[in-house]
Amino acid sequence: MNAGTRTRLDRMPQWSALAEHRERLGEVSLRGLFETDSGRSERYSLDVGDLHLDYSKHLVTDETLALLRDLAAATGVAGLRDAMFRGEKINITENRAVLHTALRAPRDAVVEVDGENVVPKVHAVLDKMAGFADSVRSGKWVGSTGRRIRNVVNIGIGGSDLGPAMAYEALRPFTERSLTFRFVSNVDGADLHEAVRDLDPAETLFIVASKTFTTIETVTNALSARTWLLDGLGGDEAAVPFHFVALSTNAAEVQKFGIDTENMFEFWDWVGGRYSFDSAIGLSLMIAIGPDRFRELLDGFHLVDEHFRTAPPEANAPLLLGLLGIWYGNFHDAQSHAVLPYSHYLSRFTAYLQQLDMESNGKSVDREGNPVHWQTGPVVWGTPGTNGQHAYYQLLHQGTKTIPADLLGFARPVAELGPELAAQHDLLMANLFAQGQALAFGKTAEEVRAEGVAEEQVAHRTFRGNHPTTTILAKELSPSVLGQLIALYEHKVFVQGAVWNIDSFDQWGVELGKVLAKRLEPAVGEGAEVPGLDSSTADLVAKYRAWRGR
Ligand code: F6P
């Protein structure tokens, strides 16, 4: 795709066709759509790998979907996708290839960046990680006092934390339960304190995860962890290499920090931070679940990569999910998207998706730097069902906003629950199905009246319905299924960025806050003058210093 010559999105005939269609469709009713088409759920479902996607409860018709696909064709989604898979530098503001798909390519695949096949490098690192993971799991890798490692603490933030932390929770039943895993990200000292306060330094391994190895939170926490370790082990610096390894693209900074590059697991600038957890950034997860399970996870990713790359538009799940998001965000004025997993193990899944989606598509200029005249990425939010049902679902059902939602569930509870707890699974899943049903079809005033409800109460007890959901089901939450799910969302985000003509792979929006925090630190800590500081910030800093007793 030649991005430079692209017509403005909202001036494309395909965009206008969708706007007109939306107008014509008006307040389409999901009840009506289901009543007139008994095969709707079958026609509006897709099976991809181990995932079953039901998108029948969306405010769409065949015509809507066709028009959305026309928009995808006109905006060159397939061309940009192919360019990504080929290793072209589609991250234009950073002049980088975007090749997280190469991280899960099979050993014999060829993916070139600047004429070099990167797949052998990927597998060399995976092999090195596997050797290390095995030696920690088996007790061969020992700490400086000869004791085996029993605690693994990952120190990283953003993409160097959320992926492994989320996947560790998601795959807990597959983890080595004799090891303890902790994830430290916040520069609030309380995070590290709580993570290590009950650990024995002689048995603790720190994994310092940072693509750049310059991120202030991570470097600060890693230095404090080093102090904690040395305090606990008598102060001999020779202990450090036994207890610290690094995951990074930046060997020079790793060395400067004092970690032997022998103990560094590498990745590359063509892996975006939020797309990195299947790179060396996944080391803590690999130690937790073992190299074989980690490879199953990668295979799951790869399966959906191949689907996205090859499936026709009508049956391409990431394309479809991306376009449905565009339908609501751009033609129904939806501002947010809820992800509601009916699995306790997916407690961090939405937090992970927040970075993936909001850091990728929270942009307001197009790829050429022009302001966009259309809505871009949604606010992504949600927590596991059924907890959310007793908190914010009220707004989903009876509020004034359009909030498309994904309902995720699994047919089988994990084996180790035992029969009694496993029996609760039917109730959990009944809730998932019921919510999809209630959101879609609601309850009419007539139905409420028919129950004998007093007239003054009828409006309060009526549910308008027509709230769109996608239901994603799988047999079980395995490493492969987790990989499939994440790749599905990664490519969905890609599709939306391609249509909106934004660079989904940079994140300049995080820079200003970093710069200002650095500038303010001397004022906060030592009371230094910051020239030109606004009165609000100056007063807040003064109040802070006074309350801090400075
Ligand atoms: O603050 C944004 C960000 O750059 C993310 O994109 C990234 O995942 C995170 O910080 C951590 O960066 P690093 O891995 O370089 O420490």
What descriptors fit this protein?
five-stranded parallel sheet; alpha/beta; 47% helix; binds 6-O-phosphono-beta-D-fructofuranose; globular; 550 residues; six-stranded mixed sheet
In short:
α7 links the parallel β5 and β6. Helix content is 47%, strand content 10%.
Structural commentary:
- There is one protein chain.
- With 550 residues, the chain is of the alpha/beta class.
- It is built from 22 helices and 13 strands.
- The longest helix has 24 residues, at 418-441.
- The model has no long low-confidence stretch (mean pLDDT 97).
- The protein binds 6-O-phosphono-beta-D-fructofuranose (F6P).
Please give the structural blueprint.
Blueprint: H1 13-25, H2 30-35, H3 40-43, E1 45-48, E2 51-54, H4 62-74, H5 77-86, E3 112-113, E4 116-117, H6 119-138, E5 151-155, H7 162-170, E6 180-184, H8 189-196, E7 204-209, H9 216-232, H10 240-243, E8 244-248, H11 251-257, E9 264-266, H12 283-289, H13 291-310, H14 317-331, E10 336-341, H15 349-361, E11 379-381, H16 393-398, E12 405-410, H17 418-441, H18 445-450, H19 455-458, E13 469-474, H20 479-500, H21 511-526, H22 535-547
Parallel strand pairs: 5-6, 5-7, 7-8, 8-9, 10-11, 10-12, 12-13
Antiparallel strand pairs: 1-2, 2-13, 3-4
The protein binds 6-O-phosphono-beta-D-fructofuranose (F6P).
